[in-house]
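Lecture notes, unit on protein representations.

Consider one protein chain, 450 amino acids long.
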Amino acid sequence: MSFIRPYILLLLSAALPLVLSTSGARPAHAQACGVTPEIIVTLRKYSQGNYSVWDYVYGVRKMERLTDALELPDRSIVAVGYTFPKGRERDVRPLMFRIDRRDRMLWEKRFEDSWDRITPKAVRAIDDETFLVVGDIASPKEGNRIWAGFFGLDGEPKDTRIVEDSEYDLFFEDMTESIEEDGFVLAVRARHKKFRAREHGVVYGLTKEAKYRWKRSYKPGLDNRLYGITTVRDEAGLPYYIAVGSLDMDAQRRAGFIMAIDRQGRMAWGEQYPRGLNANFREVAAVTDGDVVVIGDIVPQDGPYKQSAWIMRLESESGDPQWERYVAIEDMRVYGRKIFGYPDGRIVAAVDTDNEEGGELPELARVLSMSPRGVIFQDDPFLEGKSVRINEMHSNSRGHRFLIGSAEESYKADDVDDVDNYKTDDGWMIFAPALDPYDDPCIPRRYYNQ
């Protein structure tokens, strides 16, 4: 089977597909049992967010951005991210803290100079006493490498590992648990140190101790990037990985890219999905019936929308799409960020927004709840300050949708008239309310009185 099979569906030469709908929170939509292959969903504009079950803002009048968080069995939360002086984003330092269920700070780590230019991006529990933080470490001499740090529940470091390449700068993008044995598989973006425009995707297999196990590079002749990876199972129950990202079609255009790889990183199939001028996938999640859902965004060639989020459900064994949804908001750019599936078949997708030039609406996060057939039946907006950015989303044991990211806040001092001098990014987390129980109306059921 060839590495890339050009995907021949509908190439979006104009705006997007032909079907147009407007979405708010309309539960009746979930009753639709037919599947429309492609729809543009135009979301309403909101000026304020919904109430959340819980929210937390972390800030000390510097730039702080949270990238991931881990809820522990006692409901305390370990959050990771990074901080930097305003206007000096390259001078990053790692940030970690733990709060209890009543928001009280248990410990806080803002590391010293020896930790300069480390950017934590993901956190995972290793055992009852240890958690793993993975991210990037930058150095003028060694370039960009993958950094993995082990910490106790008191925040004290235990061990550190580095994954590096002499020819390429490495940028961590995503991770999933290994299907082979205890350990992790990392999706990495590799950029040539001399020819910096050249990029390709790499997958690393690591042990539970973050030691090297195997590596696979993907160079189909075209530059490509991997942004997300997850584990799925085929009809026989055998596990494998699905990785997603983007692939260059020429100097001007990118297509969404998906590939299936086995437990050692060998590719079973790869597909490209060209849409509009540019398209990419950011994350992938397994859902029921052996399918996966992916989220990203596209830039149309023309039409009323500058950028739309892109959600697709497809067969994981072939890459054939089941349906696609393009999520747009008038006068705003929409970015597809995170996605996961519930055991009952529902899908939850998170997007955030940027105003077009001159726009003044708050830039909210939108959490979209969808039926298995791609119908959006709930649209929950969330906001803190002027705008928010989503870096991660999880579902906890109580069904809450857990969002982690940053919020743009403004502070004003009595002796300073220009409030812009005190605009900062603060770390931001919320628990969005759990969804109501759901019985798919399109699945036939037998009742006792029949």
